[in-house]
Amino acid sequence: MNTMNSSCKVTADKEIIIVYFIVGCLLSLIGILLNLCSCLLFCRAKSLYNTPYSIFIIALSLADIVKLFSEYIVHLLFFYIQHPYFVCSITWFLTMTSENTSYAFLCALGIERNLKVWITDRRCLITRRRACIIMFIIVILVCIYNHPFLFVPSNVFYCFFRFFNQTYLFQCNEAYFSSYGLTFSLTNLLFIENLGLNNVILPFIIILTNIILIIGLRRRSHQRCHRFRSRKTDDWRERSVILYMLLSSLSFLFLTAPVGLLFVWESYRGRRLPTDNLAIIFDLMEIFHHCSHFPILLMTSSIIRHKTYQIIFEPRVSRNSIYKHSSSQREINCQRTNRIITNNSTTS
After folding, report:
1. What is the pTM of this model?
2. Which domains are assigned to the chain?
């Protein structure tokens, strides 16, 4: 039988809670908009859409949209939906699944770049079709990995905060699940998550792929320069991709690792989910991370900036040119008509 325990109070200051809801709202809306722009860009630009690189970027943007929705907007739904399965199961499943898929797509992107740099046999490269298959496999594996969150919880404990003399639900502070003959808690699952894919396995793969990628590009650039006495412009394009991945990886480590490590530390000390000022600030940093991929792309890639400019401004230019052409054509027709009328009048 589910228990609604209101003994947990958010220990963060009221000012920090207000900042969380206001700044979190702005960041979530901006992040969803930016990730939608990223999807639109890679879908409309044919030169980008036909590459396996675009598949992972689009998948990464969609995962970030789900993450922003589950990290912040769902908190607003807690004011109206307080069902234990929604608060303690579905919310955490969406949060952890979107996080893990987002980081896994970054890993897949790094592996795809490494194959392009290190392997000369084109049959071994990741094609667009293979990228789609890899994307679906990642989603399925992550859902299987996180499926314990979807079990029906029992002995649910909520955490509330008080604002303007009213009490509001903030998050599920603890819940217990029974399955496969085992009984485990929400804290246990999050402890495994933070010491598993989130803060150990995926960060290690991301850092390792970046190091191997930098070594591979420097090796190939050295071979072209000293053996063939040539330097291709593709190197600069690949370096922009490397710079994007490097900045994305750094933002991933500095903006997402603190909240995971804080959860691990509080679990190790035998406490439940932290709700102090530091935890809320770290949550905002994590939200900011999932808004940063498209701005980093614009900052590091001149091709992305050029394609974005084309999609935004060239349709207006083409419409203006069509309008000018049609207006000039009408003027020419009017002049011809006036000449004909004038000629007819003079002849008559």
Report:
1. 0.80
2. 5-311 (1.20.1070.10)
